[in-house]
Design a protein that fits this description.
heterodimer; A: 220 residues; 8 helices; 42% helix; 13% strand; B: 162 residues; four-stranded antiparallel β-sheet; 4 strands; 38% helix; globular
Chain lengths: 220, 162
């Protein structure tokens, strides 16, 4: 059994992609990894829609831009975004980053990704804990893609609001009833065209791990 | 039995549960809460002003809120709502006391819904809900985007008050 800690630790969210296509055998491995995620009661609620059509990806990118931009414009106007990015010292650079965020351009990248995978889950009778199962499925996809040298990004924001989720379902012809399918996210996938400074700083173990009971820091 | 109190108590339980499941993202999921009332009223209007005023007439006329005013600022994308003695105020106070920042305003949702439904606005976002339990006043800041190019039109909302 191989230790996958290095794969986990070196994975980054990649939002810029080369136009090169993803070979089918790689895509199949990624979809196979998704299929083996842990799932409550072995329910396997996940359904995956693989999207390569540029028009569909453009529609998704536009919806993502609208969703993020509508929220971030308001957050900027309330002063919240400025606080979030105050660690950027250069005022010109900070202004550029903020404009990139509140314009929604930050979330448009589905348009450039060779493949987008929509992750949805059936909510039919008998389903339990669907969002958790779907999240595990997404993590499997991200890790397998990274292990193959691909870049990927888990995108939830554009389907986070109820109206946007309904628009997303309409684009992909997913049944729209609230008791039918949950759209949890999509994953943009492609060959990385960026080398990010990641991994971003992570909290040390001593800050996030308790032993035996909440708040106890002494190792047992 | 006080039916308003009964229903507010149920809403509090549901809002607590939703917040517990989704944390801050809960606020993004609830934009349709409250819209059935206003949709049943067949609101008419061809302008922002007409639609909002007609919504306010129905909302205050049916006693959901005692008094209500609005203003538009922030280069046209900020809708400020100011309400006094809303039927939902007790639920907001209870949530605040339970350390959850109130995040559902059914009254604001009604107006935002009608801007989308009647004037075909591209999208809206309830940005901030400020409850004053001492005065019984609520101040709500909403972003209203008539067209996609309104996204990114920024200004300082701290300078505008209804």
């Amino acid at each position: 059994m191989g230790d996958i800690l290095e794969v986990i630790k070196t994975r980054k969210s990649i939002r810029r992609y080369k136009p090169d296509p993803i070979p089918d055998e790689m895509l199949d491995k990624i979809l196979e990894a998704a299929r083996w995620a842990p799932t409550g009661e072995n329910y396997q609620p996940w359904r995956l829609i693989v999207i390569k059509n540029p028009e569909t990806k453009n529609e998704i990118g536009n919806l993502a831009k609208l969703g993020s931009g509508s929220r971030m414009t308001a957050w900027y106007c309330l002063g919240e975004m400025q606080r979030r990015f105050e660690e950027i010292q250069d005022p010109v650079r900070r202004a550029e980053v903020l404009r990139f965020m509140y314009s929604g351009e930050v979330s448009e990248f589905a348009k450039q990704a060779p493949v987008v995978i929509a992750v949805i889950g059936t909510l039919m009778e008998g389903s339990v804990d669907v969002p958790y199962d779907l999240s595990a499925c997404i993590e499997n996809i991200l890790l397998e893609a990274h292990s193959l040298g691909l870049g990927a990004c888990w995108v939830h924001g554009p389907v986070a609001s109820t109206r946007d989720a309904a628009k997303f379902k309409k684009i992909l012809k997913i049944p729209t009833g609230m008791g039918e399918y949950k759209v949890i996210a999509y994953i943009a996938l492609g060959w990385p065209a960026e080398a990010r400074k990641h991994p971003r700083p992570k909290k040390p173990l001593e800050e996030i791990v308790y032993w035996e009971e909440f708040g106890r820091k002494e190792r047992s | 039995m006080n039916q308003v109190e009964y229903l507010n108590d149920m809403l509090v339980r549901l809002e607590e549960l939703l917040y517990h499941e989704l944390s801050g993202c809960a606020a993004w999921k609830v934009e349709l809460v409250g819209i059935d009332f206003i949709q049943s009223k067949k609101i008419k209007g061809n302008t922002e002003e007409e639609v909002i005023n007609n919504c306010i007439k129905e909302i205050t006329g049916d006693g959901l809120v005692k008094s209500m005013t609005y203003s538009i600022g922030g280069k046209g994308i900020l809708l400020n709502l100011k309400m006094k003695d809303c039927v939902h105020l007790p639920k907001e106070i209870r949530l605040k006391n339970d350390s959850i920042k109130p995040y559902i305003c059914p009254i604001a949702n009604m107006i935002l819904d009608q801007l989308i439904e009647k004037l075909n606005y591209e999208t809206t976002y309830l940005a901030n809900l400020d409850i004053n339990d001492k005065t019984g006043e609520c101040k709500v800041k909403c972003a209203i985007y008539e067209t996609p190019d309104k996204i990114g039109v920024v200004s300082d909302w701290g300078k505008t008050e209804p």
